[in-house]
Amino acid sequence: MSNNQDNLENKLSDAKATASGMLTKNSHISATNMSAVEVAKTSSAKDVMLWLLAIAILIGATLVNQYLPGYWQPANDVWVRIGIIVALFVFALVCLALTHQGRAFKTLLKDAAVELRRVTWPSKDETFQYTWQVIVVIAIAGLFVWLLDNFFNWFVGLFIG
């Protein structure tokens, strides 16, 4: 068991080192060994401009369907409008990924993937057993609530008539 634990700890430390290495390659701020949270809290003029650009692009994407066909003839085709909306959405996501917060989010996703590999998932039999236990408990709770409802209806009916 300790051999497996040592192996998991080695994999986790390797993944953190790799993620840290990727972060330092992409960002001059993280070269000072900042955590992902500290990187996300930092801001620069470039970040502000990218956020404003992404917001403007997303607003524009919401207006494409309504206004673009009046100004551009090919936009009368629904697939052209869908393509433009998707392209604008992807461009906005790329802008957001280039911010410090976007880099920190990518690090968070990598760390989450490492943690998901460490999860011990239940077997098919355990899942089946737990599902039936939940169904039985829900049925008992439902029966109890139904009995209370009937009792209170009867009790209030005594006073109201």
TrEMBL record:
Gene3D superfamilies: Preprotein translocase secy subunit. It is found in: Membrane. One of its GO terms (cellular component) is plasma membrane. GO terms for molecular function: protein transmembrane transporter activity. NCBIfam families: PRK05740.1-3, secE_bact. The keyword Transmembrane helix applies. GO terms for biological process: intracellular protein transmembrane transport; protein secretion; protein targeting; protein transport by the Sec complex. It comes from the Bacteria. The keyword Coiled coil does not apply. PANTHER family: PROTEIN TRANSLOCASE SUBUNIT SECE. Essential subunit of the Sec protein translocation channel SecYEG. Clamps together the 2 halves of SecY. May contact the channel plug during translocation. Component of the Sec protein translocase complex. Heterotrimer consisting of SecY, SecE and SecG subunits. The heterotrimers can form oligomers, although 1 heterotrimer is thought to be able to translocate proteins. Interacts with the ribosome. Interacts with SecDF, and other proteins may be involved. Interacts with SecA. Pfam families: SecE. Belongs to the SecE/SEC61-gamma family. It comes from Psychrobacter urativorans. The gene is secE. This is Protein translocase subunit SecE. Keywords: Cell membrane, Membrane, Protein transport, Translocation, Transmembrane, Transmembrane helix, Transport. The chain crosses the membrane at residues 48-67, 79-99, 130-148.
